[in-house]
Structures are given as structure tokens and as C-alpha cells.
């Protein structure tokens, strides 16, 4: 006997069910794409440069213009102030900047007083100041009884001048005086032209221009303070604790920029100009020949220790310099 069985049917799918599944899928896709976007979003680093001079700003400008920061997934925001290391220290203490590129004098003194910052790399392995004079001020002996213009008491400029002249037998306040002139190198040169001071320290680009303008080169500081580095990179302790990988990537990108500068000076100058550095390209290109070999992130604790002794600070360099980030960025050195 044949018994007819009903043919099984597929369960009916309502339009509301389809809509619900599509909504869930769309939501999941949206969450996934959002997570990818967040992961790919560049991380911000604010760096303050102590001077508009090319020797200070070129490594950052080249790393930015050549795309090295972008390769490291960083958005670096440079801020330039023609000021002193003491003001740079204040900016870090107030949380207005993550990193500072400046002379080390005020930084080291600040750390000695308890400032929660640390040097993480160098940028110039030697001093790059030259002391220029006007008129009859042509030699070191001519500085006796004269005034020298610097920017920021207690900063790198004053330290470089005073320590260099001390090694030549001239003592501050006994043989010469120091006058503070705010506004950076350009303001110092203007004061020299106006006769307000008799000598001023200048950066490499300004040195080239000064020679063209007929000023006298009295002393090359880098030949006197041979063991002392010039600009260093300093970070807040908060930044090193919360964003160590970001700091390592920043240093790696700047190191690539320095390599490019040494490898192709003409291209480096063009990139610098395109990324906000101002000045006469011919002069800056000539000045680059003077200091390019001194551009170097590598710095040793022995150099920091020697610096501390000159500042009459008798402590271990370990408190002032953390080389772990630089080692991670460029390897052992």
C-alpha cells in the first residue's frame, strides 16, 4: 500500500530576519574597518627646536620631507623657538612638548634640580659655534674689557663662550662681560652690527654670512671644546614611559634623515627648504659642508659625564642619559 508522504519544505525566512542578518554583518564590517583605521592612524609626536638655524632643524625637516616619519607611522609636529634651553625645559615641564632638540647645558642643570626629563640621544657630536667680532675685535686678547652677546643666561651659548675663553685664559666678569640678547642668532648679529656688543657666537650658516659681511672670526668653539656634544634630544619621563615605541621610531626616522643628509647634501638642502627652513640656499649648502660630519645621534655616557664635570655636577651620567631607546632604534654603537 502506497502512503503519500508530504515533501519537506524549507523554513520560511522572513524579510525582517534577512534585514537583521545584513545589519549584523554591516555592523561587524564597520567595527572591523574602524579598528583597521585606528591601527593605521599616525601617532603624533611634538618636538620643539631651540633655534631656527639649519644645523638644528635640518635632520627633522629631512626626516619629515623624505617620508621617514611616515614610514614609521608618525606625525611629527615641529615647533621652532629662537630661545634658550631653559625655556625648552619649561615647555617640557608644562607638558607642551614631548621632545626637545637643544643644547644640553640647561637640560643637565634642570635634571640635577629634579626635572623629570632625560636625554635620549645626541644630534651634533661637536660644538658648532664660532665667535665673531666687529671692528678692532679680531682676536681673543681683544675681548678683554669687552661685552659678548649671548641668548639666554645659563644656556648653551653662554656655556660655549665662557668655557672656551676660560681655556684660553679669559675669565667671565674679570676679563669680559656677557650680555643677554633674546631672539636667537639674528638678534645677536644685529646687536653686534649696532655696536651694543663686541662679539657674539654664531651658527654655521651665520658664520658663512658673517665672513661675507666682513666680520672677524675670533674663535672656533668646536676646536676648543672637542669632547663636548652640541645639540641633544631630550624627552619627558612621562613620554618615555607611556610611548617608548613611539620614541624609538622617532629616533630611527631622524637617523635615516641624517644618513640622507650625509649621502646627498644637495637633496637634503632642497628638502629642508621645501619643509619650512628659511635662508639663502647657497650659504646653507656651504655651511652644511662645515657641520655635516658632526650630525650624529650617537652619544656616549662618557661625554655626558665630561659635560657634568664642567658644570660642577658630580653624579653618574646614568641619571641624565638613557641610551636604551637609541640602541633599540639604531642598534649597538
CATH fold naming of the largest domain? D-Maltodextrin-Binding Protein, domain 2
Largest sheet: 5 strands, mixed
Q: What global shape is seen?
A: globular
Oligomer: single chain
Short description:
The chain has 333 residues and is of the alpha/beta class.
Task: Describe the structure in your own words.
With about 325 residues, the protein is an alpha/beta fold. The protein has two domains: about 190 residues, D-Maltodextrin-Binding Protein, domain 2; about 100 residues, D-Maltodextrin-Binding Protein, domain 2 (3-Layer(aba) Sandwich), CATH 3.40.190. About 45% of the residues lie in helices and about 15% in strands. The strands form three sheets. A five-stranded mixed β-sheet has the order 2-1-3-10-4, sandwiched between helices. A three-stranded antiparallel β-sheet has the order 8-5-9. A two-stranded parallel ribbon has the order 6-7. Helix 6 links the parallel strand 6 and strand 7. Helix 4 packs across helix 5. The longest helix is centred in the first third of the chain and has 26 residues. The N terminus is likely disordered.
Amino acid at each position: 500500500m502506497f502512503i503519500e508522504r508530504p515533501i519537506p519544505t524549507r523554513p520560511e525566512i522572513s524579510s525582517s530576519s534577512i534585514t537583521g542578518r545584513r545589519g549584523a554583518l554591516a555592523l561587524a564590517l564597520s567595527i572591523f574597518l574602524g579598528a583597521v583605521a585606528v591601527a593605521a592612524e599616525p601617532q603624533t609626536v611634538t618636538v620643539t627646536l631651540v633655534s631656527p638655524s639649519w644645523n638644528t632643524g635640518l635632520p627633522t625637516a629631512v626626516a619629515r620631507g623624505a617620508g621617514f616619519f611616515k614610514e614609521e607611522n608618525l606625525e611629527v609636529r615641529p615647533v621652532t623657538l629662537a630661545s634658550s634651553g631653559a625655556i625648552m625645559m619649561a615647555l617640557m615641564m608644562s607638558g607642551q612638548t614631548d621632545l626637545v632638540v637643544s643644547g644640553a647645558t640647561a637640560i643637565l642643570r634642570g635634571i640635577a634640580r629634579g626635572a623629570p626629563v632625560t636625554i635620549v640621544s645626541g644630534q651634533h657630536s661637536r660644538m658648532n659655534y664660532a665667535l665673531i667680532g666687529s671692528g678692532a675685535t679680531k682676536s681673543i686678547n681683544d675681548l678683554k674689557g669687552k661685552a659678548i652677546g649671548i641668548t639666554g643666561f645659563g644656556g648653551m651659548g653662554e656655556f660655549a663662550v665662557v668655557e672656551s675663553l676660560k681655556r684660553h685664559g679669559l675669565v667671565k666678569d674679570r676679563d669680559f662681560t656677557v650680555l643677554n640678547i633674546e631672539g636667537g642668532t639674528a638678534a645677536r648679529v644685529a646687536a653686534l652690527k649696532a655696536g651694543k656688543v663686541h662679539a657674539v657666537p654664531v651658527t654655521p650658516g651665520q658664520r658663512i654670512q658673517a665672513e661675507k659681511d666682513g666680520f672677524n672670526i675670533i674663535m672656533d668653539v668646536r676646536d676648543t671644546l672637542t669632547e663636548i656634544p652640541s645639540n641633544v634630544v631630550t624627552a619627558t619621563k612621562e613620554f618615555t614611559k607611556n610611548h617608548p615605541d613611539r620614541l624609538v621610531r622617532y629616533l630611527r626616522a631622524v637617523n635615516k634623515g641624517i644618513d640622507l643628509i650625509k649621502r646627498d647634501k644637495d637633496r637634503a638642502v632642497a628638502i629642508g627648504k621645501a619643509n619650512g627652513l628659511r635662508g639663502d640656499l647657497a650659504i646653507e649648502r656651504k655651511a652644511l659642508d662645515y657641520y655635516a660630519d658632526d650630525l650624529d645621534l650617537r652619544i656616549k655616557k662618557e661625554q655626558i659625564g665630561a659635560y657634568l664635570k664642567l658644570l660642577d655636577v658630580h653624579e653618574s651620567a646614568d641619571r641624565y642619559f638613557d641610551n636604551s631607546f637609541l640602541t633599540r632604534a639604531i642598534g649597538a654603537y
